[in-house]
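thread: overnight batch results

M.L. [08:02]
morning all. the overnight job finished for the chain we discussed friday. pasting input first so we're all looking at the same thing
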Amino acid sequence: MIPNFMKKKLQFIFFINLIFLFVLLINAQKLLADEIFQKGREIFLEQGACASCHTLSDAGSQENIGPNLDEIRPDLNRIILAVTNGIGVMPAFEGMLSTEEINAVSHYVYKATE
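M.L. [08:03]
and the structure it wrote out:
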């Protein structure tokens, strides 16, 4: 049989570990989101070449061939669809970018224009 003071000590240690795990999970999600944001920014500026057509303040781009993303502030689903399938004169990037890359650049544009 475990003495009462030992039970309380074990409960306290369990509670502290639970809080630590919760804080760790929250920070891990933030780090992952920041990683996706940075990857999306790189794609926007480099292999996607989005900056050559779109204005987006965060990327330092000021082209006006395509819509000004700072002004239209598209929702995430709209961005994913446009990048995947193309729209107007914008080409479809499906096949040129992986699904993960399309999701990253879409996440970046969405977060940069919130």
